[in-house]
Amino acid sequence: MSLSPLHSLIPDRFETVGILKRLASASRALAELKGLAASIPNQNILINTLTLQEARDSSAIENIVTTQDDLYRGEDSASAVGTATKEVLRHRQALRAGYDQVRTTGLLTLNTIVQIQEQLECNRAGLRRLPGTALRDGDGRMVYEPPQDANEVRRLMGELERFIHDEPPFAADPLVKMALIHHQFESIHPFYDGNGRTGRILNVLYLVKEGLLDIPVLYLSRHIVRTKPDYYRLLQAVRDDDAWEDWVAYMLDAVATTAAETVSTVHAIKELLQETKQRIRDGYKFYSQNLINNLFNHPYTRVEFVQRELGVTRVTATRYLDTLAGDGVLQKIRVGRNNYYVNRSLFDLLRRGDPVGA
């Protein structure tokens, strides 16, 4: 099967009243999110927590499901338990690696896309070289056959890479282009495995590349989890009926909805950060900004994390955490042989509105 190049689309077809209204809403919400995220002094707090939520929701679309508790308990990778948890953590690592590449180079290249998929799947299979890939529904019926020839797959990915970098120029808003890029990538289906998750990582990295976000903190997959039947139906409607406008409208709604929800979450994190900072600063001689950063970078923190990040002894780190747990600032729990100190207020905030379940 041969896919039409995206450059053959006429940008004017995406200037309908419905799409322009959605575009305005999505752009406003995304701009608010970008500005708000920049107001957090330590943006690693958002990157560490929100990218993990995105990784979990994106994985859930592929029926890779883990609980919030397992995920945050296992976030140091070495202590991760269960295949699903490890896969979600690899997703976050792949997103972070891709983000570092885009921020360093200003580019979103085919090599970066391949490296993202390699990290997700823990293999170096690269682009598909063998025929036989087909997308099937829950009853096993084939609904779509992506390009089968290896040369065609590589050619199409080369064209997509050039489209991402606006070569030749395509006069459409970057949010419209993001929707087109995502659909084309999923339709090329360039890898043996991990196409869905890789494609959803590309969404947020493209927004970073275009300067619409500074850090990858949009939970776009949360909307897709909630509307999964629509997502797959509209993907296929473009292939069957050239229904590009409906697809773009769906993706713009996803951006607007998730950006607004993420704004609410970041506001709540910011307020909780200030409240916790004030409480610890007023009540404890061992207050430090590094300690606050630790408690918000790791909703489930451990003595080892505090020891490493504050540069203190194990005895001192244990005293800090036990004191905070004793006074109700943290909740101490034991799982197996490990003690965890839970920032329960932050954890509950991140879990709010979870479409996957606890």
Report on the architecture of this protein:
With 358 residues, this protein is mostly helical. It has two domains: 12-263, Fido-like domain (Fic-like fold, Orthogonal Bundle), CATH 1.10.3290; 284-351, Winged helix-like DNA-binding domain superfamily/Winged helix DNA-binding domain (Arc Repressor Mutant, subunit A, Orthogonal Bundle), CATH 1.10.10. The chain is built from 15 helices and five strands. The protein has helices at residues 17-38, 44-61, 68-73, 83-105, 110-121, 150-164, 174-188, 195-209, 220-226, 228-241, 244-283, 289-297, 303-310, 314-326, 344-351, and strands at residues 135-136, 142-144, 300-301, 331-335, 338-342. The chain has a three-stranded antiparallel sheet. The protein has a two-stranded antiparallel sheet with strand order 1-2. A hairpin with a 5-residue loop joins strand 1 (135-136) and strand 2. Helix 10 (228-241) packs antiparallel against helix 11 (244-283). The model has no long low-confidence stretch (mean pLDDT 93).
Core attributes:
mainly alpha, Arc Repressor Mutant, subunit A, 2 domains, three-stranded antiparallel β-sheet, two-stranded antiparallel ribbon, 5 strands, 63% helix, globular
Give start-end ranges of low-pLDDT stretches. none
Which architecture name of the largest domain does CATH use?
Answer: Orthogonal Bundle
Mean pLDDT: 93
In quaternary terms, these chains amount to single chain
> Number of DSSP helices?
15
Largest sheet: 3 strands, antiparallel
Taking Cα atoms only, what radius of gyration do you get, to the nearest Å?
22 Å
Number of domains: 2
- CATH C-level of the largest domain: Mainly Alpha
Total strands: the figure is: 5
- Percentage of residues in strands: under 5%
